[in-house]
Amino acid sequence: MESLLQQGIKGYNNYGAWLREKYKGERVFKVIVDGGFTCPNRDGSKGYGGCTYCNVDSFTPSVSRNEPNLREQVIQGMERAVKGNKADKFIIYFQPNTNTYAPAHYLKMLYDEALSINTENIVGLSVGTRPDCIDAEKIALLESYTDRFDVDLEMGMESIYNETLGQINRGCTHDDLVNTLGLLKNSKLDVCVHTIFGFPWETKEMMLQYAAEINRFPQIKFVKFHHLHIVEGSVMGVKYKREPFKLFTLPEYANFLCEFLPLVRPDVVIQRLFGLSDMDLLIAPNWGLKKSEIQHFIDKTIADRGVIQGSAL
């Protein structure tokens, strides 16, 4: 008899299953585009050098970098999704850097252009940003697309502790996120936040508290969980090479997720359980497995332990 996992049934509210149900079995894939933005803690507005863990290229697949213009990025991204994944529909995903870090009229020009290409097969717009680069005008702009597309606004929570945010040169506080979530309380937008687990000065007990913070905001619909990984071109990468510090092993991280998931509201859709940079940029931890193999290891650990999202609430 096949296990639940072999049948594609997981102990958490996973994004793949959510997409299949929402779009009636059609294969929906994100097309990553680079709008040419920077960040306020890179350009001097709030700081220089960016977050200490960040090399922006490490969060963007190599095939999505350095395309000639926005239109070509969308066309080529759709072609890759069709060829590699037999995609039926697409979500346009403005991912690298801070994709609301410009005046609203300029943002509208970019979003309009990206959504005008093969529009009949686009079902969504996803915009990655920082909580300190969102205001009522930009929320209204994104909401103006919701009559035609599903629109999600993705923001980095990273840590719930201001001391950590200061140490990683985040350039904003957790209060900034809380305030922005207040602006989004009755919004038509689907809100996604992402977190990073494994900052060496945060204990397991501190990290488990992230769940309660996510749970208290019903406007949070999606989450992305990442483990801390160290990449070339980052401040943390330089420090790690000088004096390595403790990072999650894969079994440790899978076990942590088994403790964390029961604490998360069951209605929250989990888009990602881990992050992974291209191998040419990754310093540590190198788990020696492909992305699909890491996913299987984590999913199997969760299944073997009988973990169910929200069961501890």
Q: What features would you describe in this structure?
A:
- The chain is globular.
- The chain is an alpha/beta fold and 313 residues long.
- The chain has one domain: Alpha-Beta Barrel (TIM Barrel).
- The protein is 34% helix and 17% strand.
- It has a 7-stranded parallel sheet, with helices on both faces. The chain has a two-stranded antiparallel sheet with strand order 7-9.
- The longest helix is centred in the N-terminal third of the chain and has 16 residues, at 70-85.
What order do the helices and strands come in, and which of them pair?
Blueprint: H1 15-22, E1 28-33, H2 70-85, E2 89-94, H3 104-115, E3 122-129, H4 136-143, E4 150-158, H5 162-167, H6 174-183, E5 190-197, H7 204-215, E6 220-227, E7 230-231, H8 235-242, H9 250-260, E8 269-272, E9 282-284, H10 291-304
Parallel strand pairs: 1-2, 2-3, 3-4, 4-5, 5-6, 6-8
Antiparallel strand pairs: 7-9
CATH architecture: Alpha-Beta Barrel
Kindly report the CATH topology: TIM Barrel
Can you give the helix content as a percent range? 25-40%
Order of helices and strands: HEHEHEHEHHEHEEHHEEH
Summary tags:
313 residues; alpha/beta; TIM Barrel; seven-stranded parallel sheet; two-stranded antiparallel ribbon; 17% strand
Give a summary of the structure in a few sentences:
The protein has helices at residues 15-22, 70-85, 104-115, 136-143, 162-167, 174-183, 204-215, 235-242, 250-260, 291-304, and strands spanning 28-33, 89-94, 122-129, 150-158, 190-197, 220-227, 230-231, 269-272, 282-284.
